[in-house]
């Protein structure tokens, strides 16, 4: 639809399948836009598992395809996985949401599929720095390095990254560097501890629940997503604390305001000029 004349990943996958007799190929599409062309090319092909994480917003974000229930057809049914983020940018998806998607959907299904090679549509327009019309998400460049490191556990490390989307030079450079460091086996900059243990935002939870509910019918390793009880409790307690602090702050503010209002007949009224109508 105008963003590429030749789909490098799709051509590569077909070449590997038809010319080199590679039996099972995994395609992971990280671009913030759904890979509608790649999906269409292999929609009925059980030898190629296509997985896409993308901003979807119930079909209102370009190109509008990539719903969770688009799972493939005929012999390819179940070999198309769409993690379709919804909810717009309230709040935007970030590291926590992408790491959770890998942990709960992508890596379990990929391990079960057991590919001979992994092809990555390495679009970096989900990286922070892109304006809302181009993505608006807040995934860090170093997170993409850690996602690449996870993919290297598959197919004996036979992983190919093809640079695709990305409309901010700094984001493209930083994310590319992080991914190449992962490919080289270099030590990656660690992610903050709170990111690792944080639960996704509510929109992401809803998206993951929808995807896992559908895909659990095809993949034994993909279980319907649910927030761990201890995490949910911690998040609930955090929200309660924040609400309590807000209420306390408002109460304190109202008390301060009352104390500042001079009472009728008090000395605070003395010396103030009377205005028309004041007794």
UniProtKB/TrEMBL annotation:
Any coiled-coil regions, as ranges: none
InterPro entries reported in the protein's UniProt record: HDACs, His_deacetylse_dom, His_deacetylse_dom_sf, Ureohydrolase_dom_sf
The organism's place on the tree of life at top rank: Eukaryota
Gene Ontology CC annotation, any one: histone deacetylase complex
Alphabetical list of SUPFAM superfamilies matching this protein: Arginase/deacetylase
GO terms (BP aspect): epigenetic regulation of gene expression
Protein's UniProt name: Histone deacetylase domain-containing protein
């Amino acid at each position: 639809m105008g963003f590429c004349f030749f789909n490098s990943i799709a051509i590569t996958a077909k070449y590997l399948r038809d010319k080199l007799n590679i039996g099972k190929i995994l395609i992971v599409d990280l671009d913030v836009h759904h890979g509608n062309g790649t999906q269409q090319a292999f929609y009925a092909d059980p030898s190629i598992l296509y997985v896409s994480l993308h901003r979807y917003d119930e079909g209102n974000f370009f190109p509008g395809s990539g719903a969770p229930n688009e799972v493939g057809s005929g012999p390819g049914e179940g070999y198309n996985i769409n993690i379709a983020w919804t909810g717009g940018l309230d709040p935007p998806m970030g590291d926590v949401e992408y790491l959770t998607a890998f942990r709960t959907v992508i890596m379990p299904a990929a391990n079960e599929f057991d590919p001979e090679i992994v092809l990555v549509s390495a679009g970096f327009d989900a990286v922070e720095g892109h304006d809302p019309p181009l993505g608006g998400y807040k995934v860090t460049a170093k997170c993409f390095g850690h996602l690449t490191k996870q993919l290297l556990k598959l197919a004996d490390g036979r992983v190919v990254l093809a640079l695709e989307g990305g409309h901010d030079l700094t984001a493209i450079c930083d994310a590319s560097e992080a991914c190449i460091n992962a490919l080289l086996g270099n030590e990656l900059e660690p992610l903050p501890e709170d990111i690792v243990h944080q639960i996704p935002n509510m929109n992401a939870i809803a998206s993951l629940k929808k995807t896992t509910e559908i895909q659990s019918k095809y993949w034994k390793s993909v279980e319907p997503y649910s927030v761990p009880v201890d995490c949910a409790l911690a998040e609930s307690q955090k929200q309660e604390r924040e609400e309590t602090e807000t209420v306390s702050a408002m109460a304190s503010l109202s008390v301060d305001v009352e104390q500042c209002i001079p009472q009728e007949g008090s000395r605070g009224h003395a010396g103030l000029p009377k205005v028309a109508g004041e007794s």
